[in-house]
């Protein structure tokens, strides 16, 4: 189908799964809550707190449904990582700029993700809490060059001041769309073959039962 | 009633529920109860996975673990593939992870890794769900056949039967399932897009089902168990078919 390459054929939407990783207390939850809160929807009876959130976006006419999976960051739950990140299209790896140790944890996750999933997953490394710039313990240069060296993008955010978050998610979505399009092209026109689902990228037909109200716009500011 | 008791009651009702969707919906309600109870100490604070997972594990450790493991496996195997990226899938995955953590507590603490088998079973579930997505249809499960009583989509039962089961044998199964008193007056019919055919006693229902499933364009069909004279005197009698080539 011609639609497969173009991706944004009318009546279709991308569905992406994004997993949030990072040590406890780095602000993963605040970050995603900040991003989703204006869409936080209590009409949807089962919407529970901030461990699982969804967001709808429209990026240049391409509709995207994001499912954001939070993970427990405590070291003792490290082993559960794979059941969450498997089949994710993107991973957001969060550290606290005032906590060097949390940056080290991010590096460990990157290693593990690259080993398990290769280059198919879009990685974002996020230095959160830039409102605490004075207490910074992770140098910007070190973090950015590390990110580049592993093929990840680096972002600076403050969940508290709502800085950098919109850009982070928008950018990630664009990259996931690109990856999905490359995938589609590589597969030729086999749009709905099982292989398509291997990484969890699903191009699904649009259905009227779109759950949250609200328009499909990505601005949340 | 104390929250813990309420939660355990929910788990018990989840165990009793039959449909995987129903079970998942009860699981979500239980998770909501857990969040609600967490909010008691700190109202308004949104909780993420950092906070939720330990509490879930605490609750699970006090539940009937054997039942929980069974339920989770059941839901993982049977949940609707369309829900794969949804909230149900998230909390099911989390519950699965929490149970594995409890089950292998000592091992996990040492190795920091889930066993290869556990990782593999998640993978298999996901694969199976995504692979089956295209053909996820109730009636397409091998070795099972969905039969309605009297009318299409009424009192449907999914019956296990082998591929070489004769219509007469399936009729006997239906008679028992639907508790009909005079099975000699009942037969198996297949309704294909408004047309009705009676299956001959020696017909192979699975053969016919397979043929209909593979036919292009897709046909809507239902197997119905009902009396021979059900159509009323005005209707012409149904064609009795043996081979799937009647269409």
Tell me about this structure:
The complex is a heterodimer of chains A (221) and B (247). Chain A has helices at 2-6, 28-36, 81-85, 100-117, 140-149, 165-186; strands at 12-22, 52-59, 62-70, 90-96, 122-128, 153-156, 202-205. By secondary structure, chain A is of the alpha/beta class. Chain A has one domain (13-185): Rossmann fold (3-Layer(aba) Sandwich), CATH 3.40.50.300. Chain A is globular, with a radius of gyration of 17 Å. The termini of chain A are far apart. Residues 1-10, 39-47, 190-200 and 204-221 of chain A have low confidence and may be disordered. Chain B has helices spanning 3-16, 20-41, 49-61, 65-78, 87-103, 105-111, 116-133, 167-177, 205-214, and strands at 144-149, 157-160, 186-192, 195-199, 221-227, 239-241. In chain B, strand 3 (186-192) and strand 4 (195-199) form a beta hairpin. With 247 residues, chain B is an alpha/beta fold. In chain B, strands 2-1-5-3-4-6 form a six-stranded mixed sheet. The termini of chain B are far apart. Residues 132-140 of chain B have low confidence and may be disordered. The radius of gyration of chain B is 24 Å and the shape is elongated. Chain B folds into two domains: 3-136, Glutathione S-transferase Yfyf (Class Pi), Chain A, domain 2 (Up-down Bundle), CATH 1.20.1050; 142-241, Phosphatidylinositol 3-kinase Catalytic Subunit, Chain A, domain 1 (Ubiquitin-like (UB roll), Roll), CATH 3.10.20.90. The interface between A and B is large, with 41 and 43 residues.
Q: What's a concise summary of this model?
A:
The complex is a heterodimer of chains A (221) and B (247). Helices cover 31% and strands 23% of the residues of chain A.
What is the strand content of chain A? 15-25%
CATH topology of the largest domain in chain B: Glutathione S-transferase Yfyf (Class Pi), Chain A, domain 2
Q: Radius of gyration of chain B, Cα only, in angstroms?
A: 24 Å
Q: What is the approximate shape of chain A?
A: globular
**What is Rg of chain A?**
17 Å
Q: With helices defined by DSSP (H or I, 4 residues minimum), what is the helix count of chain B?
A: 9
Biggest interface, chains and residue tallies: A-B, 41 and 43 residues
Unreliable segments of chain B (pLDDT under 50, ≥5 consecutive)? 132-140
Largest sheet of chain A: 7 strands, mixed
Helix content of chain B: 40-55%
Order of helices and strands of chain B: HHHHHHHEEHEEHEE
Helix fraction of chain A, binned, reads 25-40%
CATH class of the largest domain in chain B: Mainly Alpha
